[in-house]
Design a protein that fits this description.
The protein is mainly alpha-helical. The chain is about 80% helix and about 0% strand.
Amino acid sequence: MLWVHPSIQLLATILAMYVLRLGWKRFCSAHLGIKCLFRWKDHVQWGQFTLGLWAGGLLLGLWAAHWEWSVYGLTGTHFWVGLAMGAVIPVSFLTGLRMDSIKKRRTIMPLVHAGAGFLLMALAAVELITGLVILSRFVAFSA
Ligand code: HEM
Ligand code: HEM
């Protein structure tokens, strides 16, 4: 059971790199003046799937850790950074959804959305490192 959350989150984080790569094309043409093809539909579909996986995986991680150790927050940094991601995911999702449903020229919202995307990637990198430490210390030997 303790391997399900890490597997989901690893997959979501790999997918997020792809989504960010798609979004980066838009960033280049909108802010850096470099002509790039932005695959709008792919970005939106994979972005929604990725954020859904991250959010679902977060809840599963909370539940699995509590089920195994009967407390919340035992993992320290991993727990708090996970909660921070839980706060940033809706920002990325809602701004993305808004820009997808009402299309027009914007400056602030794409930047907020991109900032949330970059931040999520950075936080996921922290989660990957701290998560691997938890796996090697607590899960690998007890499973
Ligand atoms: C990407 C690699 C990741 C690995 C290897 C990993 C690993 C782990 C492990 C081994 C646990 C203990 C419970 C369990 O095994 O189910 C755990 C718990 C948890 N994880 Fe992850 N995780 C990763 C990513 C994430 C991400 C991206 C988030 C947030 C979106 C997250 C949020 C949490 C939370 C909130 C807990 C509960 C911690 C607690 O109550 O102390 N993890 N993780
Ligand atoms: C892992 C999740 C995501 C990441 C890392 C991400 C990243 C990005 C980045 C870097 C941009 C370029 C913004 C700019 O030009 O400043 C962008 C644009 C955009 N994203 Fe996302 N995104 C994610 C999820 C989503 C989701 C879930 C949606 C829709 C529901 C979405 C819809 C859009 C749209 C419509 C644009 C174009 C905005 C415009 O220039 O008008 N994104 N995204």
